[in-house]
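Morning - iron/sulfur cluster inputs below, output right after.
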Amino acid sequence: MLGLYLHIPFCSSICSYCNFNRGLLDPDLKTRYVAALAAEIRRTSQPTPRAADTIFFGGGTPSLLDPPEIASLIAACRNTFDLATDAEITLETNPETATPERLEAFREAGVNRISFGVQSFEDEELKRLGRVHSAARAREAIRAARSAGFANLSFDLMLWLPGQSFVSWLRTIDEAVALGPDHLSLYLLELYPNAPLKEAMAREPWSQAPDDEAADMYLAGLDRLDAAGLHQYEISNAARPGCESRHNLKYWQSGDWWGFGCGAHSTVDGVRWQNIASVEDYVDRLARDEAVTIDRRILPPADRAGEALFTGLRLTAGIDRAAFAAQHGSDPWLTYRAELAPFCEAGLVWEREGRMGLTRQGMLMANEIFVTFV
Ligand code: SF4
C-alpha cells in the first residue's frame, strides 16, 4: 500500500541547525498553501483509487496548521485514495503549538499518531538549538496528548548536541522513558557548513563530544531503551512492539510513497520524482493548474537494488537474502561475502537464517560498511 507524505513548510522560528525546506509562518500564505496542497492531492485522482494506509504530515511544523485545515487535507486524501480504515495518520508536532484544545481537535480531525519534536529535556541544550519550547512545555504537551486520547506517541530526541554530556543525554533518555512513549527517534546532530549553530560554536565555550563519546552515548541510550521495552528496529528508531512507524518503514523496505507539497519526493511503481521547492512558486503553479513536479525518472534496476540494500541494512531485522535475490537478481551475501568478511569477524555484520544485517556496533560504522557495496 502507498504511504502519503504531506509537506508543511512553515515554522514559528528557525532553529540554528536546520536546513530543511521551511520558512517563517505567514498566515496568508499558509491558507493559500493548504488549498494548493489539497488541489495537488485531488488532481492525482485515478478511476480506480490506489490503496494507501499511512498519511504523514511532516515539515516544517505541521502542527501550525489549524485542525480544520488538517481535516480538509485528510479528506482530500480520503477522497482521492482508497485509504485503509485503520490508516496510521501522523502529525509532526512542536510542543509550543500543542495546547489541550488543539490536540483534541487534531484527534477529532483524524490524526491518530503524534510525533513530538522534543529534541532534549535540557533547557540549555534547547536554547542553543534555537528551539522555542522548554523542557517543561514539552512534558506538558506530551501529557496533554495522552489526555486527548492519543494512543501512539513518538518523540524525536537529538544526540551529539553542543555542550551535551553523557550524563545530560542519559537524563534526557530517562525523562523520555518516564513519559511512556510508544516510539522514539534518536537523531545525531548534523551541521551543514554555514549553520548559525556552527558559527555560535566557534564563538562559545561549548562544543560537541568527541566521536568515541558520542558512540558511547548512542549505545548507552539504546541500552536504556531496551531495558524500558522500547526495542531498536532501525538505526535511529526504537518502539514498543507493534508501534514501529508504518509510514517510515515504507522508506526502509522499498515501499511506495507519494509526496505532496513543495519539495516533496515520491517513489511509485519504480518511478521517482520531486516537487519544486519554493512555496510561492508551488502555490502559484497550482493556482494556474500547472505541473509542480521536476526530475521525473524511472529508477534503473541497479539503483533500486542499491537503495534496497542500504535502506534494508538500516533495519535491525536486516535483509531477507532470498527475497532480495528474487526481486533484484542477486544475493548480496554471496556477492559481497569476501569484502564483508572482515566486518563479520569484527562483529559489525551478521548473517543467519537466510538474513544479513548490521549489529548495533555495526550501525555506528554503517557508512564505512556501505562503501563495500559502492
Ligand atoms: S522546527 Fe524543525 S523544520 Fe522548523 S526550523 Fe526547527 S528544525 Fe527546522
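Note: DSSP finds 15 helices and 17 strands in the chain.

O.
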